[in-house]
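quick one, 67 residues, struct below
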Amino acid sequence: MPAGPRERTLVVVAAFDAAAEAALADLREALRRSGIRVPARPRHRPHLTLVGGPCPPADTDRVLAAT
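---
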């Protein structure tokens, strides 16, 4: 049976400005210097996730139109 479209997760995030990102980088470095294991670089741009959830491909346009 062929696979159909995959369900995806849609999220709404708040991104930080350059000054806040720099402050977070400084905090990560201070933690690392203190011996706390923190990745030197995060996998993703720093952000605050506001909401997220599964969304079938057929509903993507409807969800995007509501935002």
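The helical segments are 18-33, 60-66.
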